[in-house]
């Protein structure tokens, strides 16, 4: 089945130690999104790629970066994780950026910072 | 400011009972509206969406939602809840005309189902 896959599902990192989260998709969608969802809070968009075009949200900290080496893969890099970065990170895809296009979500990666 | 409010953090209903989850939005025009469901350990799945037209929208798994402009609401309903409906439900809003595809989510309502 076509899907959005996130690896790992659970990630533990140390304060200040760089960490990379991975997302892959078999849907061949043009757009890939990264959301941060803290405990008991709504998912919040960090950034998205439309094809190779990177679009950062204005309030996304510089500590968060992303790479999209090809259509199928997108990575979230946290350069120096702080305790406040502990959250569920959700990857989503859509065929286009228009809101008539459904976003398909992966299962998420839960990040713990020790 | 654009926002989505889900007033109920946690709701418990008995299996077979009806369900209504509330969602209110704040936006200067008619937004795109969505309901997503998130089962434990799973990603978000789209239940239904409203863009225009008929204000009563049918979705998957027997869910429906009604857009009420006068109340700025988009409440989710199901006539008879099943135990498998226990999950967290998110209402989301997209900005009409926006090119970024940005969804603004509510904080979610956790649904528990009693046998």
SSE arrangement:
The complex is a heterodimer of chains A (114) and B (115).
Chain A: E1 4-7, E2 10-13, E3 19-25, E4 31-37, E5 44-50, E6 53-56, E7 64-67, E8 73-78, E9 87-94, E10 104-105, E11 109-113
Chain B: E1 3-5, E2 10-14, E3 19-21, E4 24-26, E5 32-38, E6 44-50, E7 56-58, E8 64-68, E9 73-78, E10 87-94, E11 103-105, E12 109-114
Parallel strand pairs in B: 2-12
Antiparallel strand pairs in B: 1-4, 3-9, 5-6, 5-10, 7-8, 8-9, 10-11, 10-12
**Which stretches of chain A of 5+ consecutive residues score pLDDT under 50?**
none
- Rounded Rg of chain A: 13 Å
Total DSSP helices of chain B: 0
For the sheet with most strands of chain B, the description reads:
6 strands, mixed
Largest interface: A-B, 30 and 27 residues
Which blocks of ≥5 consecutive residues of chain B have pLDDT under 50? none
Instruction: Name the structural class of chain B.
Output: mainly beta
Helix content of chain A: under 10%
Number of strands of chain A: 11
Quote the distance from N terminus to C terminus of chain A: 36 Å
Q: What letter string, H or E per element, gives the SSE order of chain B?
A: EEEEEEEEEEEE
Q: What is the annotated CATH architecture of chain A? A: Sandwich
Biggest sheet record of chain A: 7 strands, mixed
């Amino acid at each position: 089945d076509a899907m959005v896959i996130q690896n790992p599902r659970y990630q533990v990192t140390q304060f200040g130690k760089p960490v990379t989260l991975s997302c892959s998709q078999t849907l061949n969608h043009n757009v890939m999104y990264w959301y941060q969802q803290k405990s008991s809070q709504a998912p919040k968009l960090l950034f998205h790629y439309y094809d190779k075009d990177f679009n950062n949200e204005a309030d996304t900290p510089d500590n968060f970066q992303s790479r999209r080496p090809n259509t199928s893969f997108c990575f979230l890099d946290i350069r120096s994780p702080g305790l406040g970065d502990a959250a569920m990170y959700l990857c989503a895809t859509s065929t286009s950026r228009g809101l008539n296009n459904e976003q398909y979500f992966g299962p998420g990666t839960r990040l713990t910072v020790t | 400011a654009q926002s989505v409010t889900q007033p109920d953090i946690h709701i418990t209903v008995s299996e077979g009972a009806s369900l209504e989850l509330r969602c209110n939005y704040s936006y200067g025009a008619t937004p795109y509206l969505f309901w997503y469901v998130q089962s434990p350990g799973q990603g978000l799945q789209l239940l239904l969406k409203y863009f225009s037209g008929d204000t009563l929208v049918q979705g998957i798994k027997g869910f429906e939602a009604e857009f009420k402009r006068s109340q700025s609401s988009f409440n989710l309903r199901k006539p008879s809840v099943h135990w498998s409906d226990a999950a967290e439900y998110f209402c989301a809003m997209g900005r009409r005309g926006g090119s970024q595809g940005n969804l603004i989510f509510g904080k979610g309502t956790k649904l528990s189902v009693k046998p």
